[in-house]
Each structure stands twice: as C-alpha cells, then as structure tokens.
Amino acid sequence: MVVDNPTGSAYPNICFWTQTKFNEWSNSPGAHTDKNWKMSFLEDTNSATMFRDTIKAIRKGMCTGWMELVSTGMAPKSWSKACASTRVLFHSMMEKSFPIFKLTHNGWKLDHLCANYYPGWVRNNSNKAGEWLTNKAMKTED
After folding, report:
1. 4 pLDDT exceeds 80?
2. Helix 52-71 to helix 108-125 angle, to the nearest 10 degrees?
3. What residues are paired with 126 via a beta bridge?
4. Helix, strand or coil, per DSSP, at residue 63
5. Is 71 part of a structural domain of the chain?
6. What is the mean pLDDT of the chain?
C-alpha cells in the first residue's frame, strides 16, 4: 500500500480518521457487540479491521522501535513524556513498515497504541530504579 500525504477526504471509507470519531463510536452500545472493538480503529482503506496476524506484527514492530529508542538514548519513561523528535522518529519507523498509520489525523492511531502498550513494555524492560535492562534480551512482545 502506498500512502502519500493522505487526507480524510481522499479516503472516505475510513471510519476513524480522527480520534473523536473513534471515541464517539467506542462509547456507543453498538461498539461493544464487536468482539474486536478495542482494535477497530486499525482499519484499511476499505474500513476493514486489520487481521490478528497484522496486529501482532504491528505490536512486534512497536517493541522493536522502542528498543531502537532505548539504544539511541531517546526512550522516554512514559509515552506521554516523549519529545517531538522521539515521536517523529518512531512514527517514521512505524509508518514505513505499516503505511496504515498514515491513514489518520495527526498520527493518533499510533499514539493511542503507544499509550496503551508502552507502559507494560517499560515495566518488562526496566528495573525498579527505572534503568533499562540492557544486559538481557529485551522483549519484542508483551
């Protein structure tokens, strides 16, 4: 999939271009009839939710990206404290591997995933003092 400078109007089939649209939908009773409602925002250009294997590959890619941030000294202790250059680097790495992350307003889908999964990854890959565990193999999936 090639996605260059997308806009919501260029991809009318995407249901959750903005986080507001996803939040409105996820708070509706109908959302909870979908067993995969928490990941429904990960959609292709036809609004189909990503397959489980694709979501697993995305999570593995995120963990690999976070390891890269640790190795370059750019990894934040919490995703909300990530500086602009860290976010730009991480988004560019992930968007190159998974162009679906370009199909969103201001990268909210990737930031949403990071907000949900980064805390657990940090817990598994740092000690109680908050130091990164570099002498063991970091986990690529939590």
Report:
1. no
2. 60
3. 132
4. helix
5. yes
6. 88
